[in-house]
Amino acid sequence: MQHHFSHRPAPSAKTLVIDRLEAYPNGYCARAFGARVISKPGSELLLVENARTATSVSVSVTSGSC
Asked: What is the bridge-based pairing of β-strands 14-17 and 35-37?
């Protein structure tokens, strides 16, 4: 299972990515481009912080560990 999210960020803003994380009973791997994942691994809420210079942010969530 895979989910993707993209948006145009405000500089250094934090973004809460709402995904159906309960759909990943064996865990998930979150990867961000133009941002960094700041929530703890396995967290019920996926939080990313946008890079100051990012013109776009994308987040990919896949099942299993990274």
From this structure: unpaired
Q: What is the pLDDT of residues 27-41, one digit of tens each?
A: 889 999 888 999 888
**Neighbouring residues of 12: CB distance < 8 A, sequence distance ≥ 6:** 49, 50, 51, 52
Distance, in Å, from the CA atom of 58 to the CA atom of 15, rounded to the nearest integer, reads: 11
Q: What is the DSSP letter of 23?
A: G
Please report, as a single letter, which amino acid is at residue 18.
I
Q: Residue 42 in contact with residue 35, Cβ under 8 Å?
A: no
Report yes or no on whether pTM surpasses 0.90: no
Q: Which residue in 57, 60, 66, 59 sits closest to 12, CA to CA? A: 57
User: What strands lie across the sheet with 2-7, from one edge to the other?
Assistant: 2-7, 57-63, 28-33
